[in-house]
Specification:
The protein is mainly alpha-helical and about 260 residues long. Helix content is about 55%, strand content about 5%. It is built from 11 helices and 3 strands, in the order βαααααααββαααα. It has a 3-stranded antiparallel sheet. The radius of gyration is 25 Å and the shape is globular.
């Protein structure tokens, strides 16, 4: 539908989006190892061993011992770092790069990492609910990135984002326009194609988790929907007066009274 290119949305609380950059580096490094350097056999074994397989998690099937790389519950997270297709990797990382920094800014570094991983797990969980007997491994950061998109939509719907519409037309649009359309598309596709080649369930799970977790984890003074936090005049006036003066009785402007004897 669209590809985000850039948003003019500066950071307000942090100087550098360390976690966002770190996640991109890890995803690219894993892809370089498993998708480029390693043999096809190693790549396939990584997909099976680290991918999220609903049938295995819900005990409809069992992996051969030689293919098990981590405990099955760990795959709620590990699947999100595996990509075998460069386009899939690049698209996810571009979404994360454009929208992740401002979400990290609103949450803080550690809480953003928790947020990201929780959205990945929620995406896997809903994918499993939609296709509990599926033996196909789920891989890719789409569930986690969907949570980031949902959080950005709640935080900055009015910010203009440059997007490439239908991979051809660059347009500056308020974030609410492309992101609401994108979110609606995920829910629609889950309804009409729940077991297709794309895991719409993972996307929707990430979206729902991202929206809820943002409300819980964001900094207390971070507003939603690009609203401006207005400080009441009385509070601003008091803050403008130094403490030692604010606690001191004001000098009277009336003329002195001379008492007669």
């Amino acid at each position: 539908m669209f590809i985000p290119l850039h948003d003019a949305n500066s950071l307000k609380y942090i100087k550098v989006q360390y976690v966002t950059i770190g996640l991109i580096i890890v995803n690219v490094a894993v892809w370089l190892i498993t998708g480029m350097i390693a043999s096809q056999t190693f790549s396939d074994e990584t997909v099976v061993g680290l991918g999220y397989i609903p049938a295995v998690v819900f005990d409809y099937a069992e992996l051969e011992p030689g293919l098990v790389l981590v405990p099955e519950n760990y795959t709620y997270i590990t699947y999100s770092f595996i990509h075998t297709d460069f386009v899939h990797l690049a698209t996810n990382m571009l979404f994360l790069w454009v929208f992740g920094d401002n979400v990290e800014d609103a949450l803080g570094h550690l809480r953003f990492l928790i947020f990201y991983l929780a959205c990945a797990a929620a995406g896997a969980f809903l994918h499993g609910i939609a296709q509990p007997a599926s033996e196909a491994p789920l891989i890719g950061a789409s569930g986690a990135v969907s949570g980031v998109v949902a959080a950005y939509l709640l935080l900055h719907p009015k910010v203009r984002v440059w997007v490439l519409v239908f991979f051809r037309i660059p347009l500056p649009l308020p974030a609410a326009v492309p992101l609401l359309l994108w979110v609606a598309q995920q829910f629609y596709m889950l309804a009409v194609e729940p077991d297709g080649g794309v895991s719409w369930g993972a996307h929707v799970g990430g979206i729902l988790a991202g929206a809820v977790l943002l409300l819980i984890l964001r900094r207390r003074d971070v507003p939603l929907f690009d609203r401006t936090v207005v400080t009441p005049k009385a509070v601003r006036h008091k803050e403008a007066i130094p403490t030692e003066q604010a606690d001191r009785p004001a000098a009277s402007s009336a003329p002195p009274i001379h008492w007669g004897r």
